[in-house]
């Protein structure tokens, strides 16, 4: 197994369930926490040159990892969290927590990130998938991103060269790895911003099953409809397979009631898709990334 020559944390035979919010998965041969862009690029370059599979993770909040584990290197970017504030703009590395960034922006009287106060992901992943909530989207704030291309080159891409869609972007399509992101915010009243975030957090607590491990919304909302509404109408609210359960609070969430497996989750997803398709002639697409 390739061992990168870096100073960041390295763990052999590491449990994947510690690396994702569903708390599911087997073991990975190697887990690496690069400390900065240079170390991240070094690890990825080494994996590619040695034909070693690698998987990039932030906080693992939108991913389903396999029960049988991962034979290769899992690269966790959470140690890459440097940040620079410059006026109404902020530049942070890919591993910077989105919730913390939203809170710090609000404390500085900068508005725009209120919608992100409860999104438990990292900035890099958020930019790549155009994460959003309550009408806000990270793509609306992006000024530019620094990426590692599929060809192994570091490039700066301005917003006008990025196509942002619903939970997607051209960065994903081109297999770019976000290294750093610059956001443009705008001045706001600190008390108003913080009140808005408190309201959104209260709404999340009321309507989302935060008391159980989950990965957020499992399915994309069909155009003009709600995945949660369709799943509830199909009769899946509260139903379970093993310890994988369709949430009683929000039916577009599948929670881990204790010892759910990746197979349980994936099977539940597939039978819901089949049932909704048969009953409503609508094919639900997953929002989560299945490894």
UniProtKB/TrEMBL annotation:
Q: Which cofactor does it need?
A: FAD
Cell division listed as a keyword: yes
What's its job?
Answer: Cell wall formation.
- Using the record's annotation, list all stretches that form the FAD-binding PCMH-type domain: 24-188
The catalytic activity, as recorded, is: UDP-N-acetyl-alpha-D-muramate + NADP(+) = UDP-N-acetyl-3-O-(1-carboxyvinyl)-alpha-D-glucosamine + NADPH + H(+)
Name the residues annotated as catalytic in the UniProt entry. Answer: 167, 217, 287
Pathway involvement? Answer: Cell wall biogenesis; peptidoglycan biosynthesis
Q: Name one Pfam family in it.
A: MurB_C
Q: What is this protein called?
A: UDP-N-acetylenolpyruvoylglucosamine reductase
Q: Where in the cell is it found?
A: Cytoplasm
> Which EC class heads this enzyme's classification?
oxidoreductase
Per the UniProt entry, what species is this protein from, by scientific name? Dehalobacter restrictus (strain DSM 9455 / PER-K23)
Entry EC no(s)? 1.3.1.98
């Amino acid at each position: 197994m390739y061992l990168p020559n870096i100073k960041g944390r390295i763990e052999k035979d590491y449990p994947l369930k510690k690396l994702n919010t569903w708390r599911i998965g087997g073991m990975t041969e190697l887990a690496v926490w690069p400390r900065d862009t240079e170390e991240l690029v070094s690890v990825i370059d080494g994996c590619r040159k040695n034909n070693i599979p690698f998987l990039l993770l932030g906080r693992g909040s939108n991913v389903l990892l396999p029960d049988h584990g991962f034979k290769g290197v899992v690269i966790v970017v959470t140690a890459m969290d440097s940040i620079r504030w410059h006026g109404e703009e902020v530049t942070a590395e890919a591993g910077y927590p989105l919730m913390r960034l939203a809170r710090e922006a609000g404390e500085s009287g900068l508005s725009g990130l209120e919608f992100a106060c409860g999104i438990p992901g990292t900035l890099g992943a958020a930019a790549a998938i155009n994460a959003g909530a309550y009408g806000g989207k990270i793509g609306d704030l992006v000024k530019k991103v620094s990426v590692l291309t599929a060809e192994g080159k570091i490039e700066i891409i301005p917003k006008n060269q990025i196509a942002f869609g619903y939970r997607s972007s051209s960065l994903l399509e081109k297999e770019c790895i976000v290294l750093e992101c610059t956001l443009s915010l705008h001045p706001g009243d600190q008390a108003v911003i913080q009140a808005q975030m408190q309201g959104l957090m209260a709404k999340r607590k009321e309507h989302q099953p935060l008391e159980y491990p989950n990965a957020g919304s499992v399915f994309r909302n069909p155009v003009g409809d709600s995945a949660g509404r369709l799943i509830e109408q199909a009769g899946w609210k509260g139903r379970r397979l093993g310890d994988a359960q369709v949430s009683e609070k929000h039916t577009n969430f599948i929670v881990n009631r204790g010892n759910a497996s990746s197979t349980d989750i994936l099977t539940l997803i597939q039978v819901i898709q089949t049932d909704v398709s048969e009953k409503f002639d609508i094919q639900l697409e997953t929002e989560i990334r299945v490894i």
